C-alpha cells in the first residue's frame, strides 16, 4: 500500500495506527511521538501534517502536501528549543499566541514541537492549557526520545505514539533497498546522518553530500601534517561546503513566498518571513551536526582499528588511511578526540561562531591524536 505513510520506514505499527486514524477521520489534537533519534518521528509528524492540511486528506502530490514535506508550508510550524538548556518561557508564550491565530493557507494548522523533553516546568505550565484544549483547527505533535523524559503533566494531555528503535543492520537494509546502493554505502550514510534513515536516503542520493563527506575524511587524514594556518583554511572550507545546500533552500523559500504573496496580508507575509528565517537557521545547524557526525564516524573507525578490530571499520573506502592514523595514535587518545566532537556540538548549540567551532575542533583532534608529533608543535 503506497500512501503518505509508506515513507515511515521501519515502523509498521506506527504506519498502521496513523492510517487507521486518518481513514476513520479520527485525527486527535495532541500527540506525543516517542522514540530514539533516527526512528522516523519527524517524517511521521510531517506525513500526519499532510493528512491534516491537504484538501484531500493527504494525497501526497498536491502543492500543499509537497510544501509540508519540504517544510515550507506556512501552516505547519516546527519548533526546536531556542535556549541553550531548553525551551524558553517566552518561546512557549509566542507559540501559545500563534496557536490562537487563523491558519494562513489551509483550513487547519499543525504545530510540531521537537525535543518536548526540553520543556521545563515553567515552559510546560505555560503550554498546558493550549495542549489540553487547542482550538478546533489545531493539531499539536510533540516529539521526544522517551516518554519518561517528558513531564507527566504533558504526557497525560497527549496521545502517546511509541516508535521502535531500528537495529543498525535493519536500517542499512532499508536504505539500500530504497536506493539500490550497497549495504556498505548505506552504513556510511547512516553514520553520517546520526542514524536517521530518512536523511541517510537523501544523503546517498546526493552526490554533493557524498563528495563533501569524502573531503571531510581527506582533511581528517591530513591533519597530522597540517599547521595552524592549514587548519584554519580547512575550517573555512568545511563550513562553506557544509552550508552550500542552504542557497537552494533560500531560493525555494523566496520563490514560494513570491508565488503566494499577492494573496496574503502583510502581517502573514512577515510571519512567513520570520518562519523562513528560523527554518534556515534550523537547516544550517542540521548541516553542522552532519559534519560532526561524519567526523565522529571517522574517529570511531580509527578507534576500532586502534583497538585491534579493523573488521568493524564502516568507512571502508578509506580503510587504509584509517589504519595508518590508528598506527600513530592510541585508543584513549581517540576517545579524547571523540569527546572534543561532543564539545563542538555543544558549542554550536550555544551559538558560538561555527567557523571558530570547527577550527577549534580540528586543532583539538590533531593535538589529541598526534600530540607533540603534529606539525604545529614540531615547528616550535
Ligand atoms: Zn495533498
Can you give a write-up of this model?
With 380 residues, this protein is an alpha/beta fold. It has three domains: 151 residues, Rossmann fold (3-Layer(aba) Sandwich); 38 residues; 174 residues, no CATH class. Helix content is 60%, strand content 7%. The chain has 17 helices and five strands. The protein has a five-stranded parallel sheet, with helices on one face. β2, α4 and β3 form a beta-alpha-beta unit. The longest helix is centred in the last third of the chain and has 41 residues. The termini are far apart. The model has no long low-confidence stretch (mean pLDDT 90). Zinc ion binds next to α3. The site of zinc ion has 7 residues, from α3.
Overall geometry:
globular
Structural class: alpha/beta
Bound molecules: zinc ion
Helix coverage percent of residues?
55-70%
Mean pLDDT: 90
Largest sheet: 5 strands, parallel
Strand content: 5-15%
User: How are strands sequenced across the largest beta sheet?
Assistant: 2-3-4-1-5
What is the CA-based Rg, rounded? 22 Å
List keywords for this structure.
380 residues, binds zinc ion, 7% strand, 17 helices, alpha/beta, Rossmann fold, 5 strands, single chain
Amino acid at each position: 500500500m503506497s500512501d503518505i505513510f509508506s515513507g515511515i520506514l521501519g515502523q509498521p505499527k506506527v504506519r498502521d495506527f496513523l492510517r487507521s486514524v486518518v481513514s476513520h477521520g479520527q485525527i486527535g489534537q495532541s500527540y506525543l511521538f516517542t522514540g530514539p533519534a533516527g526512528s522516523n518521528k519527524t517524517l511521521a509528524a510531517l506525513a500526519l501534517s499532510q493528512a491534516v492540511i491537504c484538501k484531500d486528506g493527504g494525497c501526497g502530490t498536491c502543492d500543499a502536501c509537497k510544501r509540508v514535506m519540504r517544510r515550507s508550508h506556512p501552516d505547519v510550524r516546527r519548533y526546536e528549543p531556542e535556549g541553550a538548556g531548553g525551551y524558553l518561557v517566552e518561546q512557549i508564550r509566542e507559540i501559545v499566541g500563534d496557536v490562537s491565530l487563523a491558519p494562513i493557507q489551509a483550513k487547519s494548522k499543525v504545530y510540531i514541537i521537537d525535543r518536548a523533553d526540553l520543556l521545563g516546568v515553567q515552559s510546560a505550565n505555560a503550554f498546558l492549557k493550549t495542549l489540553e484544549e487547542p482550538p478546533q483547527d489545531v493539531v499539536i505533535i510533540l516529539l521526544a526520545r522517551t516518554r519518561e523524559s517528558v513531564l507527566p503533566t504533558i504526557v497525560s494531555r497527549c496521545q502517546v505514539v511509541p516508535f521502535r528503535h531500528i537495529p543498525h543492520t535493519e536500517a542499512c537494509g532499508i536504505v539500500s533497498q530504497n536506493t539500490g546502493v550497497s549495504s556498505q554505502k548505506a552504513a556510511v550514510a547512516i553514520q553520517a546522518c546520526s542514524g536517521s534513515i530518512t536523511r541517510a536516503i537523501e544523503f546517498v542520493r546526493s552526490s554533493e553530500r557524498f563528495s563533501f563527506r569524502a573531503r571531510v575524511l581527506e582533511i581528517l587524514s591530513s591533519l597530522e601534517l597540517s599547521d595552524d594556518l592549514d587548519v584554519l583554511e580547512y575550517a573555512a572550507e568545511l563550513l562553506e561546503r557544509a552550508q552550500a545546500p542552504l542557497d537552494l533552500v533560500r531560493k525555494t523559500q523566496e520563490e514560494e513566498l513570491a508565488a503566494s504573496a499577492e494573496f496574503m496580508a502583510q502581517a502573514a507575509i512577515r510571519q512567513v518571513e520570520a518562519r523562513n528565517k528560523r527554518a534556515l537557521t534550523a537547516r544550517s545547524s542540521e548541516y553542522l551536526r552532519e559534519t560532526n557526525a561524519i567526523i565522529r564516524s571517522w574517529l570511531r573507525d580509527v578507534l576500532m582499528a586502534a583497538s585491534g578490530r579493523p573488521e568493524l571499520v564502516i568507512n571502508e573506502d578509506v580503510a587504509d588511511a584509517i589504519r595508518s592514523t590508528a598506527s600513530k595514535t592510541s585508543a584513549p587518545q581517540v576517545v579524547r578526540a571523540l569527546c572534543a566532537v561532543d564539545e563542538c556540538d555543544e558549542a554550536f548549540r550555544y551559538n558560538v561562531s561555527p567557523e571558530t567551532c570547527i577550527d577549534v575542533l580540528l586543532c583539538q583532534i590533531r593535538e589529541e591524536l598526534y600530540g607533540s608529533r603534529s606539525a604545529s608543535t614540531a615547528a616550535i
